[in-house]
Amino acid sequence: MSQLTIFAGMVWVVCVAGSAAAAATQAEQEEEQEEVETLEQLGDRIDVLAEELERMRSGEPEAPMTPEEARERGLGRSAASVYERTDAGVSIAGYGEMLYQNGAGTDQSGAPVSTGARLDFLRAVLYFGYRFNDKFLFNSEIEIEHANEVGVEFAYIEYLAHPAASFRGGMLLVPMGLTNEFHEPTVFLSAARPETEQRLLPSTWRENGAGIVGSGGRVSYRAYVVNGLDASGFDASGLRGGRQKGSAAEASDPAFVARVDVEATPGVFVGGSIYHGDSSQGQFTDSLGDPFSVGTTIGEVHGQAAIRGLDVRGLWARTSLANAGLLNQALGLAGADGVGSAIEGGYIQVGYDVLSQTMREMSVTPFYRFEMLDTQAGVAPGSTKDPARDRTFHTFGASFAPIPNVVVKADYQWIRNEAATGVDQFNFALGYNF
Are 402 and 182 in contact (CB under 8 A)? Predict the structure, then answer.
């Protein structure tokens, strides 16, 4: 064998060995890269698992409750915060509002009348809730009114028996209208709550009782038995003074209240509610000494549509009182000061968020509301109708929310009545919730 042949063979062996070594090195590099990628993926999964464990530990929900979900429970968004917990623990939320009002008008003779200016920190509220387990929870609203009066707006225990039905007992918000349950200042557009939902549906109206809350498909409902109103507090201006507010409430005559809402599409719903009970609470007798009842029936229908910045709301309500004449005699109310045998009122409101198509959080919503309220739509024998109780309200204003949890509202009201008198009033409010 020649030396040239031997040399060529050696070169071939070296090349083959080099190629094999290179191939082995590349395989090792690819294997190392796969191991690195696997470790990175494992690290990502560990991070996700750690976040999930922390969420479960803290009770933080995967996503905040939507306004529709909160409404189905008869609560505003902040008031429903305890339902967002996934384990045992405390929840805290709240809201507050300050209101400035200044008005002037004329009396029946045409002379000017001033209602004066008032600046009131209406309420500062804290919601305290506690989730015991997956079935039981406690929820409450503690309110400081006018900066110095402490009260309880609601406080109840709820048993979450089924996704479609819960049982609730304690001090409850009466489920009527668009404002009584949903009274956080970021929910309604005007500086003050509609007059119909202060005098006829006396917001904030709460009583002691128990009942059922639930939803199924597009339908939500609530039905309670509560202590009834106290007719000794009724007057010509409406039912507001008849609220017992859960404080040593007279309960001789309980009442029943029920509500149903149907959601046509997200943001659009219609519904109604009815309340019936005897408001005498065993306190009244006629001239012969015989007890009499003050049967109180309140019915209302309502609807709301909030679509692509448009906000339309409407409500109509009517109250009928049995034995209003006997009640006026027992209370010593005569003539135009008598409690009406019928009260009726309602409103329609239209607003539009002019930033809805360009901004995600900030909103500017001009609105107009027309409202009618007559607290003596019917009068009992022996009473006379006061035309000043039959009023109309034109309210123009705007609501500005730099973020969803803070709102500044201003509006101007033209208030007129059938007695040809009226007031023009400016309202300004600052509100927040969390």
Answer: no
